[in-house]
């Protein structure tokens, strides 16, 4: 076999295959990580409680919902798309889940499965319209955002659905050891996403579509199926976020998650993923989500007026993206 | 009226215009003729100040001129109607004509009446009557062209360049356009008419200047030449590239791909062709003659009104290129950067993008070690010059980029590979390598379709050639008929008889 001759090279490179594909896409991580360190240090200076282990877990727990939504958003943005429906789909999934259990007397597991199916269904609907209907993602998901929100309000009459069995709260505020359950769920979802993106053909195809959809299609990638799948994933992660949210609030809230799609997009972009697609890492999104959470937490700890907090966050996002633009 | 002398233009180290002359008189229609890539468009861009000449002079009315940009050329009375119109589809003819130099009333509002009056005057002078206030998108292609011409005239153009104005027109529309051109000629406008269609040149033009490979070949009166003479001037004799020898093929070999019917548009021409095992079939024709659309339609990447074919005797129909891949039919698209490469990827994922079936572990995960080995193997086969499979695509030369696109298909058992303009923008050495790789593939039993706009390449590489014109195949030539004159004649006139 001829590769005996360069066996040493092959072995050597196979050692770093862990980052092989990431190598090209690695640089986007540097900046978010630097941002995370800088913001953490600033917060640590501003508030002595910041580096408390309990505060750190608290931040991560607060981050978990946006963090989970941002996973699906990362898949979508990597292909050059966008999903504005995630917040509304989350609210609908949570409402249906609670409704199935409370109103219809279903077992909790069935309720949870129902919520997940709602998320998946909306994702497939979005994906089918984008892939086969050839409609722009921003319009499709803007419309389905309205549809999901409206359906949730109709189903619940606009009121929260409470009276859930107490074990549901485990998903929102439970702990395993010291670690909050939502944080564990979030980490598992990120791990699965990482494997999908970095270790499967599907992941490569996602990047390929974002990099050059025409080239991917002409070389035999089934671009429409992949697009269907990524919107389905986004719908599914919205539903997972709904499970955490329902557990935390112990009710189905049809009005929850307004504007969460924007935070999820901000997390993805802060994490270094190109909004035009093709470049970015799921780990970056996690860092972006945590960065956003620390800002929220820190600004609260320092006691800044909540209205002013939004303004400050907005400017920080602009600054981060401006620096990122120079960097690339 | 207009005199260009010794125009040279280099892009980097490559000279594309080698001292070209052109002189156009007032009140004449002057044809600028040459193959794809002969330098016509570059010359016109120099004239319009869009690009700067490296050397040479431009004189207008005997006065030396040098244009720093397009606006200065317009101010000097030059108007150009590009192949791709620059009209804004949702604005009306009047709004388009006065875009960015609207006539205003004293209060600063648009003086729509004045603009409409001027527009009507100009169109009247052309002898054209068309709706002025509807969006130009709702006008016919010819009418849109008249709007472009009127726009140029409203800028007092005395020299008008028409870049392949008839390419997308129906015969009756061509007649209308010619009437307008004659009207312009009566008004002493100097017209440069670029067209590939020789019969039109005989119909409308007074004199002809021929370019070939950026070289000035000559200028003559239309009355003094015939069809054959023009083709000879366009094609000439040229320095031959070294092509690998053509193997002797068995003419009775069964076809790999037998396309019984392919029709791009309803009502358009219906073509058929066969591709035999181990053969390279050239697709020749002018730009826009339907070659690329045809190969894309075969793969289901471009709509087709009708497409009936058999692959190794079995009827197939591809609804997307992935189906083609599954059956062993693949494409190396024209325009590597836009359609071939994923530029955000390194070499490795660019090659392995459609290969994953080959080294999947447990059918779900990528076997990274095997992927790397397969990629290295493919890179060695096509001799990609790179330090590592993880090099970025933009560090590679055009030739190496093309080899990467080719390498993608080597891990498959391909029956048919389609090369669309495989050597565009790559240097001579890399071209020779690509040709050799194509022959290596055919020796392994693969059949190849090669779309090419370069005649020497078509002749040097293909075993047989299908000539396209107007969306379909007008002739298939092989053996002794494989001459540049014959192909060029078919491509420009659609038939062999003299048109003059």
Automatic annotation (TrEMBL), chain A:
<feature type="transmembrane region" description="Helical">
    <location>
        <begin position="138"/>
        <end position="158"/>
    </location>
</feature>
<dbReference type="InterPro" id="IPR001851">
    <property type="entry name" value="ABC_transp_permease"/>
</dbReference>
<keyword id="KW-0812">Transmembrane</keyword>
<dbReference type="Pfam" id="PF02653">
    <property type="entry name" value="BPD_transp_2"/>
</dbReference>
<feature type="transmembrane region" description="Helical">
    <location>
        <begin position="262"/>
        <end position="295"/>
    </location>
</feature>
<feature type="transmembrane region" description="Helical">
    <location>
        <begin position="179"/>
        <end position="197"/>
    </location>
</feature>
<keyword id="KW-0997">Cell inner membrane</keyword>
<feature type="transmembrane region" description="Helical">
    <location>
        <begin position="109"/>
        <end position="132"/>
    </location>
</feature>
<feature type="transmembrane region" description="Helical">
    <location>
        <begin position="59"/>
        <end position="78"/>
    </location>
</feature>
<keyword id="KW-0472">Membrane</keyword>
<feature type="transmembrane region" description="Helical">
    <location>
        <begin position="307"/>
        <end position="324"/>
    </location>
</feature>
<dbReference type="GO" id="GO:0022857">
    <property type="term" value="F:transmembrane transporter activity"/>
</dbReference>
<protein>
    <submittedName>
        <fullName>Ribose transport system permease protein</fullName>
    </submittedName>
</protein>
<feature type="transmembrane region" description="Helical">
    <location>
        <begin position="29"/>
        <end position="47"/>
    </location>
</feature>
<keyword id="KW-0813">Transport</keyword>
<keyword id="KW-1133">Transmembrane helix</keyword>
<feature type="transmembrane region" description="Helical">
    <location>
        <begin position="228"/>
        <end position="250"/>
    </location>
</feature>
<keyword id="KW-1003">Cell membrane</keyword>
<dbReference type="GO" id="GO:0005886">
    <property type="term" value="C:plasma membrane"/>
</dbReference>
From TrEMBL, chain B:
<protein>
    <submittedName>
        <fullName>Ribose transport system ATP-binding protein</fullName>
    </submittedName>
</protein>
<dbReference type="InterPro" id="IPR050107">
    <property type="entry name" value="ABC_carbohydrate_import_ATPase"/>
</dbReference>
<keyword id="KW-0472">Membrane</keyword>
<keyword id="KW-0762">Sugar transport</keyword>
<keyword id="KW-0067">ATP-binding</keyword>
<dbReference type="GO" id="GO:0016887">
    <property type="term" value="F:ATP hydrolysis activity"/>
</dbReference>
<dbReference type="Pfam" id="PF00005">
    <property type="entry name" value="ABC_tran"/>
</dbReference>
<dbReference type="InterPro" id="IPR003439">
    <property type="entry name" value="ABC_transporter-like_ATP-bd"/>
</dbReference>
<keyword id="KW-0813">Transport</keyword>
<keyword id="KW-1003">Cell membrane</keyword>
<dbReference type="InterPro" id="IPR017871">
    <property type="entry name" value="ABC_transporter-like_CS"/>
</dbReference>
<feature type="domain" description="ABC transporter">
    <location>
        <begin position="2"/>
        <end position="238"/>
    </location>
</feature>
<keyword id="KW-0677">Repeat</keyword>
<dbReference type="GO" id="GO:0005524">
    <property type="term" value="F:ATP binding"/>
</dbReference>
<feature type="domain" description="ABC transporter">
    <location>
        <begin position="251"/>
        <end position="495"/>
    </location>
</feature>
<dbReference type="GO" id="GO:0005886">
    <property type="term" value="C:plasma membrane"/>
</dbReference>
<dbReference type="InterPro" id="IPR003593">
    <property type="entry name" value="AAA+_ATPase"/>
</dbReference>
<keyword id="KW-0547">Nucleotide-binding</keyword>
<keyword id="KW-1278">Translocase</keyword>
<dbReference type="InterPro" id="IPR027417">
    <property type="entry name" value="P-loop_NTPase"/>
</dbReference>
